[in-house]
Amino acid sequence: MTELKRYRTMVSDSALWTGFHFRHDDVVISPPPKCGTSWLQMLCASLIFDSSEFDRPLTEISPWLDATTYDFAATTAMLEAQTHRRFIKTHTPLDGLPFAEGVTYLCSGRDPRDAAVSFDNAIANVDAAKMIEAAALAGMDPGAALPPPPPEDPRERFWLWADAEIINGPVGVGTLANFAHHLQTFWDRRHERGVVLFHYQDLLDDLPGQTRRLATVLGIEVSDERIEQLAAEATFDRVRERADQLAPGVDHQLWRSNRDFFRSGTSGQWRGLLSDDDLRRYRKRLAELASPDLVAWLHR
After folding, report:
1. Binning pLDDT at 50, 70 and 90, where does residue 185 land?
2. If DSSP codes are grouped into helix, strand and coil, which group holds residue 146?
3. Please, what's the b/e burial string for 280-290 (b: 16 or more CB within 10 A of its CB; e: otherwise)?
4. Domain covering 14-299 in this structure, CATH number
5. Looking at residue 142, what is its pLDDT?
6. How far is CA 78 from each of CA 62, 83, 86, 113, rounded to the nearest angstrom?
7. Taking the domains of the chain in order of start, what are their residue ranges?
8. What per-residue confidence (pLDDT) applies to 150?
9. Residue 180: φ, ψ to 5°
10. pTM value?
11. What are phi and psi for residue 5, nearest 5 degrees?
């Protein structure tokens, strides 16, 4: 058995997956941040429950298993008590996850430039006091719970993210190198049974079609009429309207605004930020980090 790589961030530790007891039909949802994680969770919930209305916040139904800002024993006990098909969130690359027979591993990719802008907005939306409080409850050093203040210039923030190397430790935030590596671990195994990649742009362009694809992946029989109904309730605008139920971290009151977690949901947000010279520099940097076929897929 290949030894799992350990991934740590300021809010997660993949070592918590060690010894987790999978069920044969579990679903693990593991995109990089700001690539449609909550969207995939919503679609899984809609198909599994055959409903777009849930009895509690989505983050409680589909918990982030290896988040260090939650009580791990409580999270696993909650999952063990679930009688429905479980769908579990993580941001751990595939080579850090136990690979179990029958389990479905979902990932979604996005134009890295859009992910960067979205992630930048998310960081600005974090309620610092709530983040420190959550870290303290998890036994973390509150001083390490937040990154240092970023530069005021958004272009400078982009290049700090793009030029940095992989960060694998309980400080700092993700980088383009982390982003590319995460997706590469799924891309390289995309033809294996149980490993499935979605693209954020496809969710924007044809949500009913992608909902149908997910239903097929999960082996859930559902009529075309019902697919249309569920997809209509899972559009970005509809999800944003229900941010208090569907945004991650609402139980910790993590965001200054839950609605602003779902800020835009569009592509091309980077166009007003990066010049032609910036784009040449960006393409060169990404070519150092990801295979050409993955790069082409992300930007198609």
Report:
1. very high
2. coil
3. eebeebbeebb
4. 3.40.50.300
5. 59
6. 10, 10, 11, 36
7. 14-299
8. 75
9. -65, -40
10. 0.90
11. -80, 140
Instruction: Give residue 122's identity as a one-letter amino acid code.
Output: A
Give the catalytic positions in this structure: 91
Per-residue pLDDT, 1: 54
For 240, how many CA atoms within 13 A lie in the half-sphere containing its CB? 12
User: How many CA atoms within 13 Å lie on the side-chain side of 178?
Assistant: 24
Q: What is the residue whose two structure tokens read 């990154």?
A: 147
DSSP string over 39-75: HHHHHHHHHHHT-S--SS-HHHHS-BTTBTTS-HHHH
Give me the helices (H) in 154-257, please: 154-163, 176-187, 200-205, 207-218, 224-232, 236-241, 243-246
Which pLDDT score is estimated for 2? 73
pLDDT attached to residue 254 = 66
Reported as a single tens digit per residue, the pLDDT across 31-81 is 999 999 999 999 999 999 999 999 999 999 999 999 988 899 999 999 999
